[in-house]
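Sequence decides. Our protein:
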Amino acid sequence: MKNKMIFILSALIFMSVDLFSQSYEEILNTIEKNNTDLQAGRKYVESKSFEHKLDNVPEGPELSYGYFPNNSTVPGTKEVFEVSQSFQMPCYYRNQVAYSKMLVEQEELKYKVLQQNILLESKRLLIEYIALMKQLTINDKRLKFAEDIYNAYMVRSEVGDVNALELNKTKLHMTQVRKNQELLRSEVLSVKEKLNNLNGGENLELDFKDYPTEQLIELDSLIFNQMAVDPEILYNQKATEAAERNIKVTKNLQLPSFSIGYGTETVADEKFQGFMVGVSIPLWKSKRAIQYAKAESGFYQLNASSVTQNRISDSKVNYEKVQSLKSSLENYQNVLGSVNSEELLSKSLELGEISVIDFFTEMFYYYEVYDDYLSVEKEYHRALAELYKYRL
């Protein structure tokens, strides 16, 4: 019996199933596909992509027509017709196309940030679900153990072998464990409902009970990888590049713009027609427009630097937290994997070496230690998920 309990405990602590990892990733992929916020985000990126490309080409030609029937000096009706096309300098369109492309890339990175936040929330809920299922598995055993003790003491009370105080203590213990079981089941349903909501209201099949296997890599490698793929960092870097390009676009807009057209004018039986050329020279806002673009560029440069530094600092703090939790988890595993307090206490109680009161006092302490272990295990995987958020 003792060897069997140790085996079960070790399996609960060390079990790592590859099939679970696949199911875990499948759940996240399903949520990514069905989440309504992400679906709306994809549509938003698509609409902004069209919007940012509107300035890449000149506006349409301008048509005008005039009809003047009442002329007191010249006999006959006067009609005027003009068609013209305005355009900027060629360098403007070259820089504008590059600028629009950067803005589209920014929108895609902003969507990626939204995607990561939703997937991280989903991952946290999955970790919470796994923690609750682990607690439920342990609590099922505790409840069976409590019911067995209570039933045994009921039989012993009938023959006068135990007193009412001892019987009541076993009943109270059983009642408390049963209450915990009900609370845990309620929390499981709540977490599943939140996950279904993230999945667009569709039910998810959650058939796993252990955490994913994720190894802690070296801090330098982690930061290097994060700098290369973290969408929030890349978004701010792209915003800096776009702001630099916008300075060129703004300067191009301060150059003269031109228009070419064709017009006709008909008065009575006389008709005049020919080509027209126009030029527009911006004078009043050019200096302030360039100053604004440069100030905006300076802001994005400083902001990108700040975001990067904060990311590195947060990663270092989270890394230390993960290492600390990992050390605590290993200590718990070493201790809990080598003891079986439930069986030892049960034998001591049967042999009369301890009282019922002492038995439950020690049992509650053992339960508390094991619950602390489960709590540390959950926090470790939550911290690891936060550390590896950039991978989502």
Remarks:
- The chain has one domain: 2-391.
- DSSP finds ten helices and four strands in the chain.
